[in-house]
Write a structure and sequence with these properties.
Length: 330
């Protein structure tokens, strides 16, 4: 049996055997990024040098059975979608203990908040941000249709690849709808973006489920932050932030068009039933909010079409009245 993790004498690289292939990375390198579960490094496929991403789950979590199972779950999400990062697989020193490694395709790009700074003064800034958010909603529609909830939507988990393609990152804390055993283990997520049900799982004596509307809420907060330039839910302490998420609505912003603000308010309703129920509903609402206001003549024509039956009925009543009056006069 091949030992899945190996290191050679006088060789800085760690070698990982995943899905019948050898990969490697240098643990002494600076991480590409860090998240709740671990650090991400640039790695390579030994056969041809193809660049990959290697996530090493933090040692503080590595011996936690729940975290190990969650890492395996992330690596098993073999999704193929242009707005998602594709997974390669998973390996570990031993089945129960030691570091865990999750391998995925490498995405060359920048986080969406950095991307937005690149066109801060563009007249098309709002439309570009909306386009990126709609791409994320396409990715969410895909994973939701397969029973997966992301649970950690935030700017650092949305990557813009080559200044064009949008990819939703890090399904590491995602939960499967069908009986995921991690869903009852306390708060999981990032407070500045998390939905109320992620922090207070019981409301009025009833257990509130994490579902697609949870991701919609988180993306609504992210959307607001990108348009506004800051996240008003962020406070000095985590407790204050979580309290604000549960009790306070997003304030109106001069940088956000009124129609889009209405869309964001609906996406970030505190009660799940009041939010958009699907990612596509949210996407269509954004697209509708971007449509130009119809001209006055078009508004009149639309009103006539919507009230045609009423108008027709009124004309007929008027004609009858005129007929009666003529008969009486004669």
């Amino acid at each position: 049996m091949v030992q899945a993790v190996q290191q050679r004498p006088n060789d800085p690289y760690l070698y990982l055997y995943v899905m019948g292939e050898w990969y490697c990375y240098n643990p002494a390198d600076m991480p590409l990024g860090s998240g709740a579960m671990g650090d991400v490094y640039k790695g390579y496929r030994c056969r041809d040098g193809m660049v990959i991403a290697v996530k090493r789950v933090k040692d503080a979590f590595a011996n936690n059975k729940m975290i190990r199972e969650r890492a395996k779950q992330e690596a098993s999400l073999a999704f193929r979608h242009p707005n998602l990062v594709e997974m390669i697989g998973y390996c570990e020193y031993a089945p129960e203990t030691g570091p865990i490694f999750i391998l995925s395709n490498f995405v060359q790009g920048k986080n969406i908040d950095e991307y937005v700074k690149g066109f801060e003064n563009s007249p098309h800034r709002t439309e570009k941000i909306c386009g990126a958010i709609c791409a994320v909603l396409d990715a969410l529609d895909y994973v939701h249709s397969r029973g997966v909830i992301h649970r950690d939507i935030k700017p650092s988990n949305i990557m813009i690849e080559n200044d064009s393609n949008v990819r939703l990152m890090d399904l590491g804390i995602a939960r499967m709808n069908a009986g995921n055993k991690f869903s009852s283990f306390g708060f999981i997520g990032t407070p500045e973006y998390s939905a109320p049900e992620q922090m207070q799982r019981e409301q009025n004596g009833t257990i509130v489920q994490i579902n697609a509307t949870t991701d919609i809420y988180e993306l609504g907060i992210t959307f607001y932050e990108l348009l506004n330039g800051s996240n008003p839910m962020s406070c000095n302490t985590e407790v204050e932030t979580m309290t604000r998420q549960m009790k306070e609505n997003l304030p109106a912003s001069e940088r956000i068009p009124k129609k889009l603000m209405q869309v964001i308010w609906k996406a970030t309703e505190k009660e799940q039933s009041k939010r958009y129920q699907t990612a596509l509903d949210f996407k269509h609402a954004i697209q509708a909010a971007l449509l130009p206001e119809p001209s006055k003549s078009q508004q009149v024509m639309d009103w006539i079409q919507e009230n045609a039956m009423m108008l027709l009925g009124g004309v007929m009543v008027l004609a009858v009245l005129i007929f009666v009056i003529v008969i009486l006069v004669i």
